[in-house]
Amino acid sequence: MTIADGSLATLTGKPFEGTIMQIRIASSNARDASSACDEVIQTLADGHWSLIIAGFNTEHDASLLQQRLTQAFDCPIMAGSSCLGALGIEQQTQAQAGLVLWALADHSGNYGVGACSQGDDPRQAAQQALEKALAQSGREYESPALLWCILPPGQEECVLQGFSDVVGPNVPVLGGSSADNDVSGQWQQFHRQGVGVDLIQVAVFFPSGSVGVSFSSGYQPSGQTLVATQVAGRQLMELDGQPAAQRFNQCIDGAIEQQLEGGNVLALTTLHPLGRCIPMADGPDDYLLSHPDAVTESGALTLFSEVAQDESLELMTGSIDGLVNRAGKVLENARQLLPKEEKPVGALMIYCAGCMLTIGEQVHAMAADVHANAAMPIMGLYTFGEQGCFVDGQNRHGNLMISAVVFGQ
Question: Which sequence spans correspond to the domains of the chain?
Fold first, then answer.
């Protein structure tokens, strides 16, 4: 199914009284999942919500969360696990709450959530999930303003192709890949109908106001360019005609010397990712990052995203200060893209889990800076992969990225 642009219609849901879009955040640090649910349900009990998106620590039982939240709220729900918790900002700032809900009420908009197990054909599964979301919204043959996704890590490029098959390439897709706390594969997703480790989830937004989106990183090009001379999907066998791990190690002053015969390098490479230049017609170029996570016994580098054969890759550099300060700037960029006459009423954010783990306790400074830059309710997820679009409008999957969507009224 492909769709065309269409005009806004009326939501068949239970709104707040009045015509104003409202966004609220409910968060809990309770260690017990049932107690956490009690807290967030009580916070949002007075609302008639159009959509709820949740982020949670994998220490919580996803099945229990799904059961309690679907009993409490009758709107579309989507949720994904977030590394060490999720970011929740409203009256207070919680950088790593165990459970955070982002609740939207918009009686003049339309919303829907679709999900499908990834299986052996993630592109087809993505198509099916999006078609379900559009059907739930009541706007099957129209183009939404935004897609927000929560995905299992591993096949994100194929998933984005599947979304494009349905709505075309020009609808912004933002979101992230579910995460656990130790990269052991314990990530999960849930929606109204089920819980899983491989659920492709997507929400369609036909909001009554505008959206501003931003997708960026806190890294700078080092000036060293490498060529991917032998690749296979997410495995980089050669750089500049040399074994990839060996050549990469030379460029980062021996930081992975002890792992050249095989081993995990995730933490060692967070401040030295590989970047693909995305030329911009106006303004400075952007960079889409790939994060090396391991060295194979044959000396190849495995990545969290795909690179192409013979693609030029820039060695990027980052710093703790840059990663702490960048999130607020990405949020501000998204806010500035709203029409001047519209007031920002809330935001969704994605912040790479690798960046969060690298800045450590500075995550609280990052959250405080985001709060200081925007007086609105915000939820953020710490993810193992980020989906977004630069100013050129093309949707991409990357690593170590930050994104924001700001909703206007």
Answer: 22-216+322-408, 220-317
